[in-house]
Design brief:
Layout: E1 8-11, E2 14-16, E3 34-37, E4 47-51, E5 54-57, H1 58-65, H2 67-77, H3 79-87, H4 89-118, H5 125-142, H6 147-156, H7 162-189, H8 194-203, H9 205-208, E6 213-217, H10 224-235, H11 241-247, E7 252-256, H12 263-270, H13 280-287
Antiparallel strand pairs: 1-2, 1-3, 4-5, 6-7
Helix pairs in contact: 1-4, 1-7, 2-3, 3-4, 4-7, 5-7
């Protein structure tokens, strides 16, 4: 059984007790200083880390790491590898290394969530969990799946219980919401005048402009006879150009409209696309050789 170590460290210069796995974070939005003093302590079997007093369950680690799903799959399909992985010192060490890596990632996310909340952002934790629980119940109720079948389904996904599944979804949702919330907060705190925006645009037009392009669906046939036959069938309404194109292996071409050396550009400029295939552009697409 993997035992996770703990860590005491301070955030932003103010000492705070934090039992945690050692973590490195890089914030893209707001620079912050971490100072850490490591203290290794054993935790009870139900907890793999404590982040600022917030306990993270071992079940959360098992589900997020998919370790149960992986081991069951290995046992069924690769029994020899499974035996070596679970019954040798090297195999167990490998599993522990993998679990520690996953534990660090989860703890990292929770620390970021707490960091965003420390900035005064309300992530509405209770509402998030309530919504997840409601959606979970509604989904399986609509599908008319019994409780015992739900447990089997969750176990197949690597979750040992409904609570385990909801806990994982809860932290995943909080983490995603915290990234969005911090981005919006930083964006709102940035004040730019119209003149500043104009100067930035004028000085860096190349960064904000791209050359004009067009996406073109081109059909290429092995012979002119095949192209003529397909063209006539489209004109007669037996099928549409898009239907023929979807059945072909021809890729979507992206061309620059300002590239006058491209023969297709010349065709497009002289024959704007229309709904009916009655002009030179479509005849060329269907019958003409590619240059």
């Amino acid at each position: 059984m993997l035992k996770i170590i703990t860590l005491n460290f301070s955030l932003g210069g103010t000492p705070m007790k934090k039992k945690f796995i050692i973590i490195m974070l890089i914030f893209l939005f707001i620079p912050i200083l971490f100072s850490a003093s490591i203290l290794y302590e054993p935790l009870d079997q139900d907890t793999f880390a404590i982040v600022n007093g917030e306990k993270l369950s071992t079940e959360l680690l098992n589900s997020r790491s998919q370790v149960l799903y992986i081991l069951l799959d290995l046992k069924d399909n690769y029994p020899d590898f499974y035996s070596g992985l679970t019954n040798t010192a090297t195999g167990v060490e490998f599993l522990n290394t993998y679990l520690i890596d996953q534990a660090m990632k989860i703890s990292n996310e929770v620390l970021f969530i707490q960091f965003v909340e420390q900035k005064g952002v309300n992530l509405n934790r209770n509402e998030v969990k309530s919504n997840i629980e409601s959606k979970f119940s509604e989904t399986f109720k609509e599908l008319e799946i019994q409780d015992d079948e739900i447990e089997k389904y969750l176990l197949y996904l690597g979750y040992t219980s409904k609570i385990n599944y909801i806990d994982d979804a809860y932290y995943s949702t909080l983490y995603i919401n915290s990234i969005s919330a911090l981005y919006n907060k930083v964006l709102e705190e940035i004040e730019l005048s119209d003149d500043e925006v104009k100067v930035e645009y004028e000085n860096n037009k190349s960064n904000y402009m791209s050359p004009p392009t067009a996406d073109i669906k081109v059909l290429i046939f092995a012979s002119e006879e095949e192209a003529s036959f397909t063209y006539s069938r489209i004109i007669d309404g037996y099928y549409t150009f898009d239907e023929v194109y979807r059945q072909s292996d021809n890729p979507l071409l992206t061309i620059r409209i300002d590239d006058d050396t491209n023969s297709l550009v010349k065709i497009i400029k002289s024959n704007p696309p229309r709904d009916m295939f009655l002009d030179q552009f479509y005849m060329t697409v269907l019958k003409g050789p590619m240059r």
